[in-house]
Amino acid sequence: MSTSNIALVTGGSRGLGKDMALKLAQQGIDVILTYRSQQAEAAAVVAEIEALGHRAVALPLNVADINTFGAFFDQVAAVLADTFGTDRFDFLINNAGTSLSAPIAETTEAQFDEMLNIHLKGVYFLTQKALPLLRDGGRIINISTVSARSSYAGFSAYASMKGAVEVFTRYLAVELGSRGIAANVVAPGAVFGGGAMPDTPEMRAWVAQATALGRTAEPDDIGGIVAFLCTDAARWLNGQRLEVTGGIVL
């Protein structure tokens, strides 16, 4: 049987998800990561984790396509048995996503539905399908955004779905408590090169001046918080939202 804990990280081929996967591996955790189209990048992350002395597997997944989740978890079950010698994993990190910047007056139904499918329905039903394979005493970490707390023009659809995920997380904490499973939210601010904010010099300058620590975030600022939530030291954190922004718009 597997002697290491195992994390499933969605969207682990680049940006925040890549850093989460690497930080988890540095903490001694094996990783199953997913990618939508960046197969080569995902393979490179697997190689980095293996170089750290831990096991990793990359699987394709489109979190917006709920009808594929059953087959995806069949693959996960096979990987758990064949690669890790177990039938359960310990940590689910719902990270995969994309961004949308559009004023309310111009947001189309198609854009709204895309945000809904990726950031809310995808997270809800992927988590539902994961529950039989998630070990009792495990953790669920959902990724939200600072814009679910403070409002920025153009992000209404994206932030609305993330706000709903925060409510969903509290319900997970209540309903899964009997299994010893804790569920929490990590809410980053603008992480350029992987976040929802437009990546322009003007936007970077605005974020830096609005942040108490006086700079913009890197993916490396976020992954360690996710890894911490998978440690025994974080065992009594449950149903909480951790905003990881360096102190923006306080």
From TrEMBL:
Lineage top rank: taxon: Bacteria
Pfam families named in the record: adh_short_C2
Keyword Oxidoreductase in record: yes
SMART domains assigned: PKS_KR
Keywords: Oxidoreductase
Residues covered by the Ketoreductase domain: 5-195
Stated family: Belongs to the short-chain dehydrogenases/reductases (SDR) family.
Descriptive protein name: SDR family oxidoreductase
Source organism per UniProt: Hymenobacter citatus
